[in-house]
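Example 9 (inverse folding). The structure is encoded as follows.
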């Protein structure tokens, strides 16, 4: 048992449900004050994503670019064209920073960590923010939540790290979800590994309801060791993971899932803490985003989760 926000949580039973069904829900973890602080901080990030998204420049084009552009437009079919253009600029910029090195595989086989994606979908009303800044106090608190860490470590080992923290706001009257398993499983051949490589931990920032886009999952689908086809629509045996704001939903990334259709007039928001085993390549490298002064103010636990002493390659000889 563990007490968070004045509640006793039966961790053993949460872990058992997770193992069996592939997901579990713990209600009532965030206080009204936490939620208020979280919503304010998230709205700032969403606003910045809309008005001044990361757009550091461009790079030379390459013969593969037409195929990459077509792939992004097909995968993210509700993203505004200007947003796909931004993802393409970012892809070319990153490639230029990497001495123009192209990927040796076709775009559909490129690890998703490497490929910028449109972060506005739903014809403009859905917003994603990746690498959410852990220097925002409420985000740091969510990442370091003792219950969350206990669960993540019990699944991925005590040395697990953060792969990414992201925020999403599923826009009103949208249906932009496609069934998937998470990175890096989408790139792996079947059968998928039996041990979990990554774990998704989702803080519900609004009530998750059937109508507003609560995540859809297929219980026990992780046991199939297979991947769903990347497409929308309904799946036999799917269930909606519903719960009040302030709840925590956790699922194995091998569980088939997608955001639901939002048929309401309001967005459905979530803060997602995605953990991976220490030897899996994380989605985001937070270290360059954190100044030495900011790092000093963080706890060693948070610094480690963000990749300090974890993501760096330290076995280099030190000489070229
Ligand atoms: O926000 C959601 O409902 C689901 C998010 C999702 O699909 C994911 O984390 O991979």
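The amino acid assigned to each position is listed next.
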């Amino acid at each position: 048992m563990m007490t968070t926000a004045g509640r006793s949580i039966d961790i053993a039973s949460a872990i058992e449900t997770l193992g069996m069904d592939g997901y579990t829900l713990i209600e009532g973890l965030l206080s009204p004050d936490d939620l208020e602080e979280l919503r304010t901080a998230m709205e700032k990030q969403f606003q910045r994503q809309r008005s001044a998204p990361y757009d550091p420049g461009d790079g030379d084009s390459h013969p593969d670019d037409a195929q990459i552009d077509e792939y992004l437009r097909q995968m993210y079919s509700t993203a505004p064209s200007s947003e796909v253009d931004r993802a393409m600029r970012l892809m070319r910029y990153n490639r230029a920073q990497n001495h123009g090195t192209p990927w040796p595989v076709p775009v559909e086989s490129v690890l998703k960590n490497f490929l910028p994606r449109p972060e506005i979908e739903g014809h403009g009303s859905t917003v994603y923010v990746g690498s959410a800044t852990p220097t925002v106090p409420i985000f740091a608190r969510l990442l370091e939540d003792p219950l969350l860490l206990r669960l993540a470590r019990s699944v991925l080992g005590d040395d697990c790290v953060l792969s990414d923290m992201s925020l999403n706001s599923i826009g009103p009257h949208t249906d932009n979800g496609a069934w998937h398993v998470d990175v890096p499983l989408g790139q792996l051949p079947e059968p998928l590994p039996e041990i979990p490589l990554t774990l998704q931990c989702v803080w519900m920032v609004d009530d998750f309801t059937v109508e507003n886009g609560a995540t859809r999952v297929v219980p026990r689908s992780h046991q199939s060791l297979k991947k769903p086809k990347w497409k929308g629509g309904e799946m036999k045996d799917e269930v909606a993971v519903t719960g009040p704001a302030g709840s925590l939903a956790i699922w194995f990334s091998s569980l088939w899932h997608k955001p639901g259709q939002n048929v309401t007039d309001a967005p459905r928001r979530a803060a997602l803490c995605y953990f991976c085993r220490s030897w899996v390549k994380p989605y985001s490298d937070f270290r360059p985003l954190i100044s030495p002064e900011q790092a000093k103010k963080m706890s060693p636990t948070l610094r480690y989760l963000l990749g300090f002493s974890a993501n760096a390659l330290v076995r280099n000889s030190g000489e070229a």
